[in-house]
């Protein structure tokens, strides 16, 4: 990652925090993409802002050594395929049938994308043609499907609720307790009773995680179905990466609050110990919001 972070960086910010792994972080709503260097014995973190393109979902295509990135557009789908070690090696996927893409994922060697504005998930080729579609609900945006995750052999997606009205997902009173995590292929509900959920994840022990964003908390459900809760008051948890020892949770500022109070705005990433869910530290970001997080190795 040395080449991409140095050659593409538009801003470099030195930090003072502890961070055990390198991270790539995306941010929507005039945010961008950042690479954060882990801290060492002598140095602390360094944040390389690669650009300020509003970005939602991220994943790494390890077979092809590239980052797959969803760029936020209201009028069309835009996915950037960026080689990890060759900054000039970039391919852009465009499709005008889809819009407001909230996530991308490589699954069974195919590119999956969540088109929230058309309430569907698609597989798409690099030329931009749709290969297959999974439609959710009767109207555009009504379920507000958002984040993809891999739970063992299943591809799953979080949604604010199975609504029939386009605007219901925007009202707190309607989204409270109506959020779900679904199996993309079958539509089966795998977790319900959530409130504006994002970022479904699973760890090596089979514990399932979801950011219950409206309730400002992280939920962890073990194989025995027991649920542990980590609260992050005053934030909007969204974006998560789980490694062997740590969990990284994105903590966005609450949009209505920071937009009404102009000034310096910094979201953070909370660093948790995976086994205990104890918070070990946090890292400040050059963005108000977080959408996705992936840990990488040099």
What does this structure look like?
The structure is a single chain. 6% of the residues lie in helices and 50% in strands. The chain has a single domain (2-296), classed as 6 Propeller (Neuraminidase), CATH 2.120.10.30. It contains three helices and 25 strands. The longest helix is centred in the first third of the chain and has 7 residues, at 2-8. It has helices at 2-8, 172-175, 255-260, and strands at residues 11-14, 22-27, 32-37, 46-51, 55-61, 66-71, 77-83, 90-95, 101-107, 110-115, 120-124, 130-135, 145-151, 154-159, 179-183, 189-194, 197-202, 208-212, 217-221, 227-231, 236-242, 246-252, 268-273, 279-284, 292-296. The radius of gyration is 18 Å and the shape is globular. The N and C termini lie close together (6 Å). The mean pLDDT is 90. Strand 5 and strand 6 (66-71) form a beta hairpin. The strands form six sheets. Strands 1-4-3-2-25 form a five-stranded antiparallel beta sheet, with helices on one face. A four-stranded antiparallel beta sheet has the order 5-6-7-8, with no helix packed on it. With 298 residues, the chain is mainly beta.
Mean pLDDT: 90
Give me the CATH superfamily: TolB, C-terminal domain
- Read across the widest sheet, the strand sequence of neighbours is 1-4-3-2-25
Poorly predicted spans: none
Shape: globular
What is the CATH topology descriptor? Neuraminidase
CATH top level label = Mainly Beta
Round the Cα radius of gyration to an integer and report it.
18 Å
Helix content: under 10%
Number of domains: 1
Strand content is over 45%
Number of DSSP helical runs: 3
The count of DSSP E runs of length 2 or more, i.e. the number of strands, is 25
**Euclidean distance between termini CA atoms:** 6 Å
| Class derived from helix and strand content | mainly beta
